[in-house]
Amino acid sequence: MKISELKEFDAAEVLTDDESIQHYLALAFEDDDPRMIQRALGTVAKARGMSALARESGIKRESLYRALSDTGNPEFGTIVKVVRALGLQITVTPPAPAPAPTKRAKPATARQAKPAHA
């Protein structure tokens, strides 16, 4: 099969319930990439309906499209309003601690038998 024969995937089509949207956004925020967060919010807005989200967030639809587009640069206040309109909240937590390095076992050494005393 050629890549050109593959069906284009649109994540907005599978984000059909609150739980999948919550997990999708949580993963985007864990990535620590502002563009990834912006794209994820744009995808969720598309899944939920941009007009409905604009109404619930109090942001004009055109402004929401612009802010969440690939070339947009949303203010933090816009992101907070969108997240709240989705029925979610942004929570700050410390990062998970890095796993402790494991001690490497010393390589086994061959033991020599002690000579028996006569």
How would you portray this structure in words?
It comes from Burkholderia ubonensis. Keywords: DNA-binding. Residues 93-118 are annotated as: Disordered. The chain has helices at 18-30, 34-48, 50-57, 61-68, 76-85. It starts with 17 loop residues before the first helix and ends in a 33-residue tail after the last helix. The chain has 118 residues and is an all-alpha fold. The protein has a domain at 9-85. Helix 1 (18-30) runs antiparallel to helix 2 (34-48). It is 46% helix and 0% strand. The longest helix has 15 residues, at 34-48.
Short description:
This protein has 118 residues and is mainly α. The chain has five helices and no strands. Keywords: DNA-binding.
Rg, alpha carbons: 26 Å
Average residue pLDDT: 84
The general outline is elongated
Beta strand count: 0
Helix content: 40-55%
User: How would you sum up the major sheet?
Assistant: none
Specify the structural class: mainly alpha
Put simply, the count of helices is: 5
Beta content: under 5%
What is the N-to-C order of secondary-structure elements (H for helix, E for strand)? HHHHH
Poorly predicted ranges (pLDDT <50, ≥5 residues)? none
Terminal Cα span: 80 Å
GO molecular function: DNA binding
Keywords: DNA-binding
InterPro entries: Cro/C1-type_HTH (IPR001387), HI1420 (IPR014057), Lambda_DNA-bd_dom_sf (IPR010982)
Organism: Burkholderia ubonensis
